[in-house]
Structure formats: C-alpha cells, structure tokens
Amino acid sequence: MTGLMTTVTNATNGKRYFVSTVKCPRSESLQQTAVFRKIFGPIANFWRPQATFFGDDAADLHARVTALVRDIHPAYWKMFPEGAPTLETAPTLEAVMARLRGEPTATERP
Predict the structure, then answer these.
(1) Domain residue spans of the chain
(2) Contact at 8 Å (CB) between 68 and 98?
C-alpha cells in the first residue's frame, strides 16, 4: 500500500483537515492514520498531527478516521485510549462516535 490521503471538512467547526494513512514505520503489519489541520490549499501542519490512530486494515482505518474527523468536534478526538486506538478497540470507537452524535449505542437499543 502506498498510502491514502483525503481532505475532510469537519461538520461541527467547518475547518478542513487532511486524513493520511500510511504504513507504520515501526511495525511490519500496522497502518498509521494521522489527522492534520489544513492551513491553506495543499499546505498543512504536517509536523504536528491533531490525532494519530493505528490499525491492521488500512482502508477500514482510513474510512473510520475520516468519519470521525467529519462528524466529531476535534476536542473529542483525543478521548480515545492514549489518543491512538487500534482496530481492536473499534467497538469502543464506534460507541463513542454514536454517543457524541446523540445516537443510542448497541447496549441502549431496545
């Protein structure tokens, strides 16, 4: 995999971010997705990611983080375990996102 990059506009604050997924340099199997605040055009603060996430499946991780960046206020991005959830904590990620959107979680549904 060579990498994925998507521009996303956050629905809560209207700011634009880059979501970038690449192979993790410290692991043979992990993928790393970072979120960068877009400054102007293609320029972003690539030296200071807003949040970083890790997982095994690059496409799935990229899609989940893109949804997180699009739907959830940036103040809540770091509330995940150590700011870097893995796909093993994906149910937690989905539950937190549902809670922040005001949707009932799987355990609250009738």
Answers:
(1) 4-101
(2) no
Q: What is the dihedral of CA 83, 85, 91, 93, to 10 degrees?
A: 30
pLDDT in tens, 37-90: 988 877 887 888 888 888 888 888 888 889 889 988 888 877 654 444 454 455
Other C-beta atoms lying within 10 Å of the C-beta of residue 31: 24
DSSP helix/strand/coil, 89: helix
How many whole angstroms separate alpha carbon 34 and alpha carbon 30?
A: 13
In angstroms, what CA-CA distances link 82 with 21, 51, 78, 79, 101?
A: 19, 10, 7, 8, 22
- Count of residues in the chain: 110
Rg (CA), the chain: 14
Residue-wise burial string across 81-96, b where 16 or more C-beta atoms lie within 10 A, e elsewhere? eeebbbbebeeebebb
Token pair of 16 as six digits: 């634009």
